[in-house]
Amino acid sequence: MFYILSSSEYSAFLVLSDIKPNNISQAKFNVELSKGDLSQGKNELAKIGLVKKKVISQVGKVLAQAILRPQKVISVVSSNSLDMATTHYCFNGSFWIRLLPDFNHNIISIESPILNQDIGKKINEDFFVGIEVEEVEEINLKLSLKELLIFEMMQLEVIDRIKKKEAPLTKEESQLYSHEFINKKNLLTLAASSISLGAEEGYEISKVLWDLKDSQQHLATLVSKEVFDSTRPVYAPRTKFSLSEKAQKWLSADTIIDKITMQKLPEGDILNFTITKAGMLEVIQEKNSIIFKSMPKSYLD
């Protein structure tokens, strides 16, 4: 069953339930509705069976209980969503409901019931079905924060050169000396973008960015991990670096189809997935490193 409510109707519905939210509820609503909005909300909710005789119905109570006092919540957001709205799946002990806000149209849709044994299939259908990926070798790669930042600087430089050329780079053009991508311009770009992660995390990343005295050591490690290729052309005084085939398939920004983040409550587990043309990566963040681990293609079936 699907219920589509305006934001004021949704607020009226939850206010009428008189249920106090628990600490994992993801409900966001206006608790201070005017008498007029509350009255109008009752009338509209009565039309779809969530209110009877001006009070919340039994069906309404069950749905409101799942929304306001869920036992479990799985929240999922896709970077491909037009408004980056988060979908919430809420478990009331017997079944799940799906809450999907549409900020562009100021509405909230509620889907119920979803059986407990079907919740994995439902999330898969909502976010992963229809993704076309290639069959390529698996990847299980762990990068330190500095290694990841050096990789990102290489990407920034390559993208900048492609934009200036307005065409793909040749093999020779994509081979760079370390100072051509580990430089103040790219450092400042990454430092500025890190602020969007929040003041504290942005500050910590910025500190790492400005402490790259051991960059040559990290470059050697990136080559050993097959993220970078290295070469010493006869005309070149020093080693040049380029993105490896593995990095271009799995990590390069232009291969990314979608990024999906999933949070499970009350556990607090956060799962990050990157969908690329090569397949699906689980991205695991540890204290000072990032792990990129490919998921089997059957996961998307």
Explain how this protein is built.
The chain has helices at 7-17, 35-47, 58-68, 119-127, 145-165, 178-181, 184-194, 199-209, 215-224, 245-250, and strands at residues 2-6, 51-52, 55-56, 72-78, 87-91, 95-102, 107-115, 140-144, 228-231, 240-243, 256-265, 269-276, 279-285, 289-295. The protein has 301 residues and is α+β, with helices and mostly antiparallel strands. It has a ten-stranded antiparallel β-sheet with strand order 1-7-6-5-4-11-12-13-14-8. The protein has a two-stranded antiparallel ribbon with strand order 2-3. Strand 12 and strand 13 form a beta hairpin. The longest helix is centred in the middle third of the chain and has 21 residues, at 145-165. The chain is elongated, with a radius of gyration of 25 Å.
Quick structural gist:
With 301 residues, the chain is α+β, with helices and mostly antiparallel strands. The chain contains 10 helices and 14 strands.
Strand content: 25-35%
Number of helices: 10
Mean pLDDT: 87
Helix/strand-derived category reads alpha+beta
Structurally, how many domains make up the residues?
2
Largest sheet: 10 strands, antiparallel
The tally of beta strands, per DSSP, is: 14
First-last Cα distance: 25 Å
Order of helical and strand elements: EHHEEHEEEEHEHHHHHEEHEEEE
The Rg value, from CA coordinates, equals 25 Å
Helix share, percent = 25-40%
Relevant terms:
single chain, 10 helices
Present the secondary structure layout.
Blueprint: E1 2-6, H1 7-17, H2 35-47, E2 51-52, E3 55-56, H3 58-68, E4 72-78, E5 87-91, E6 95-102, E7 107-115, H4 119-127, E8 140-144, H5 145-165, H6 178-181, H7 184-194, H8 199-209, H9 215-224, E9 228-231, E10 240-243, H10 245-250, E11 256-265, E12 269-276, E13 279-285, E14 289-295
Antiparallel strand pairs: 1-7, 2-3, 4-5, 4-11, 5-6, 6-7, 8-14, 9-10, 11-12, 12-13, 13-14
Helix pairs in contact: 1-2, 5-9, 7-8
